[in-house]
Design goal:
Elements: E1 2-5, E2 17-19, E3 23-27, E4 35-39, E5 42-47, E6 63-66, E7 74-75, E8 80-86, E9 97-99, E10 111-112, E11 126-127, E12 137-138, E13 146-149, E14 155-157, E15 166-175, E16 179-180, H1 189-203, H2 210-217, E17 219-222
Antiparallel strand pairs: 1-15, 1-17, 2-5, 3-4, 5-15, 6-14, 7-16, 8-13, 8-15, 9-12, 9-14, 10-11
EC number: 1.14.11.18
GO molecular function, one term: phytanoyl-CoA dioxygenase activity
Family: Belongs to the PhyH family.
């Protein structure tokens, strides 16, 4: 029982390329035999390179350190996983993934826009109170390499300082038995208001809360749809 989530509204400028083709992969169910699952959406996220010259360097390819659970109005977190696949060679020159190992054992932290001189992309929120002395692990990856991680893992990416694109496929999966929560009165309430504003502008839809967004985006890939 697996649900696939695309992270942003379908017509949003945030998600630049959305393929409505069928993509086949494998789903593992504990120690049981690996089975085929069908994923009807695949998101291709393109991050623009820095331009050479004196006016280069908006650095909008940076993604501040964050936890994916900040964007999700459903729980429990242990039943959610991200599959992040590199479509190019990734290293520190083009801003590979950077993670804080072990932080998936913690709790959801408050997020907000970082106070960066060159700004940051819309909805690219970051953690405000992580330990600055913690050692980041930079994930050097080759094309096709995939990393799976927990939604509480603190991670981000640096700026792309090359003349090429940094391309990756980022997908999130959750057990169909997960349940939605009301984010009002939590650290996610501000995010909900911003997401609804973006969604209404791009889709002209009358959405009431963050739950509506994710119910609209979710697609069943295996088993039966229960709560999500």
């Amino acid at each position: 029982m697996i649900i696939f989530f695309s992270p942003f509204p379908l017509d949003s400028e945030i998600c630049r390329v959305l393929h409505w083709t069928q993509h086949y992969g494998h789903a593992h169910n504990g120690d049981k035999q690996t089975s085929r699952c069908r994923q009807r959406r695949r998101i291709l996220r393109l991050e623009r390179p820095l331009k050479a010259g004196p006016i280069s360097g908006r650095k909008t390819s940076r993604h501040p350190l964050h936890q994916d659970l900040h964007y999700f109005p459903f729980r429990p977190s242990d039943y959610i996983v991200c599959a992040w696949t590199a479509m190019e060679h990734m290293d520190r020159n083009n801003g590979c993934l950077a993670v804080l190992p072990g932080t998936h054992k913690g709790t959801l932290k408050p997020h907000d826009y970082p106070q960066w001189e060159k700004g940051v992309n819309i909805l690219f929120h970051g953690i405000q109170d992580y330990d600055k002395n913690s050692e980041l692990k930079h994930l050097v990856m080759e094309k096709g390499d995939t990393v799976f991680f927990h939604p509480l893992l603190i991670h981000g990416s640096g700026s792309n300082q090359t003349k090429g694109f940094r391309k990756a496929i980022s997908c999130h999966f959750a057990a169909a038995s997960c349940h939605y929560i009301d984010v009002k009165g939590t650290t996610q309430e501000k995010l909900e208001k911003e997401v609804l504003k973006v969604a209404s502008r791009n889709n002209e839809m009358d959405l009431l809360n963050l739950k509506d967004i994710w119910q609209f985006q979710a697609r069943l890939v295996k088993g039966e749809r229960i709560n999500l």
